[in-house]
Amino acid sequence: MRERISTIISILAITVLFIVLPACCKQGELIHVKVGLSWLHEAQFAGLYWADKRGLYEEEGLAVELLPYQHEDLAHELVGGKYDFVILQTDTLLRAREIGLNVKALFADYQLMPTCYFSKKERNITKPEDLVGKTVGVAYSERYPLIAMLVNKGIEPARVNIVDREYNYQALADDVVDVEAGWVTDGDSVQAAVGEYNVIYPYNYAVNWYADLIVATEETIEERCELVEAFVRATMQGWEETISNADEAALLPQEYDPDTGAEHLKFVLQVSIPLFCTGEHCIGWMEESVFQQAQRFLLEQGILQDPLEVREVYTREFIEQGCG
Prior knowledge:
Blueprint: H1 2-28, E1 31-36, H2 46-53, H3 56-59, E2 62-67, H4 74-79, E3 85-88, H5 90-98, E4 103-110, E5 115-120, E6 135-138, H6 143-152, E7 161-164, H7 170-173, E8 179-183, H8 187-194, E9 197-200, E10 211-217, H9 218-223, H10 225-244, H11 246-250, H12 262-276, H13 288-300, H14 317-322
Parallel strand pairs: 1-2, 1-3, 6-7, 6-8
Antiparallel strand pairs: 3-10, 4-10, 5-8, 5-9
Helix pairs in contact: 2-10
């Protein structure tokens, strides 16, 4: 009898152990994932912050570290193994592919291009035709959609004085430039510098490509498919919940950088949500035609030398699983 009782106790103990062990193992075996952001901690990444701080990544078995931009070549650092995922723009993705880096987009945060062109309200510069004879300040890739927009409207780019810009809109305030490029998320900074302003949006003139693409290497996609699937699933859910809880989500960057201002963060997310969620497709969606258009513009401007097979620069495999 004692042996039978002992056997029963042993079986119960083993059963309890197997019930408890998986939860313990899941908690102790989170996979560390590093994400290289394309900018400083900002509300444009609110969906990722939500997934992190609200435990969505952890539920997928991931411990995600979101790292602000360090003025580095993110595509090279991704291939070199510093990051598991990075945020790239469409032009940087295509240029990385052209030089042989095996990087591929998984998810597009901005469905509509956030790049835009600001001017003082009183200058009445509201359309591409108004840029003729004006001085436009641009930085980095802000030049590409500007030229594409001018060409689309039949305007010779040489008729616009395109110059380099700083990032504080002082040149716009001092009338050193008539127009200054930026992202729609800079609108509050522009208002602080010049007061009321006008904006020209390239996507209103048939120039659009994705911004803030989540990118991984092809090796990661092939060899760590479950990790990629888990990360994209949690990120997609993070964005869906962010849009439903915008006021709360906007302030999450302060948990990574306390110096970011609350009103600015709310403004950034407010103007970004219509560009994230257009109602045409599910969050994160990507279309071949958008990459084709971007490639055509970049080829015309000599940024790319040879055409790529754009179907190879992105995959919808993981976002399709999360679309209803």
